[in-house]
C-alpha cells in the first residue's frame, strides 16, 4: 500500500494552469516528479465555479498529452471556471491537481492586430488595421472579432530606421481601422508596429510583426 501511495504522490500532475489568447483557452500541466511519470496517462475535468459536479473532458480522458483544449467548455466568458487533472500509471491513480480559478473575460490575453502598410507617393503611408478574432462564430459562420467583447483601441507606432531600430514613436491611438501617417521623408525606411490596448483593464497585447516600407 505504501508503495502505491508513493507512486500516487510521485505521478500527481504539477502546475495545472489555464493559458488563454483571444479566448482560445488551453489547460497545461507538468508531469509528476517520478521518472516513470513520463508514461502516465491523464484525465481532465472542468466545472463552472459554484457547480457541485465536475464534467469529464472526453477528448482529454486517458491521454498522454500535457495540454487540453478547453476553448469550447469556457465559452461563457464572464463565468469563472476550474479544471483539475489526475494521472494514472500501472493501475494506480494520483489524487486530483486543481487549477486556479479562471475567468476568460478577465484573464485572456489579447493578441496583436494584423497590420497592412500601403505606401503613398506623397510623403505618407496608409496603415490598415484588423483586430484579432475570437474562436467564436456568428450565425453566418464568420469569427467574432475581439472588439465585440472589449472596448479596444489600436496603438500604432512608427520606427524610423535611420534613427534607431528600437525607438518606437506612438503616432496613433484610437478605433479607426485605416489611418494615414503624413510628413514623412522620401527615401527613408520606416517600419510600423501596432498593439491592441484595453483601457478598462489596462492591458496591452504584444506588438504586431513589423511592416516596413521605403518611401
TrEMBL record:
The keyword RNA-binding does not apply. Keywords: Disulfide bond, Receptor, Repeat, Secreted, Signal. Signal peptide: none annotated. Residues 9-96 form the Fibronectin type-III domain. Residues 108-213 form the Interferon/interleukin receptor domain. GO terms for molecular function: cytokine receptor activity. It comes from the Eukaryota. Its main location: secreted. The keyword Lipoprotein does not apply. It is found in: Secreted. Belongs to the type II cytokine receptor family. PANTHER family: INTERFERON/INTERLEUKIN RECEPTOR, INTERLEUKIN-22 RECEPTOR SUBUNIT ALPHA-2. This is Interleukin-22 receptor subunit alpha-2. It comes from Dicaeum eximium.
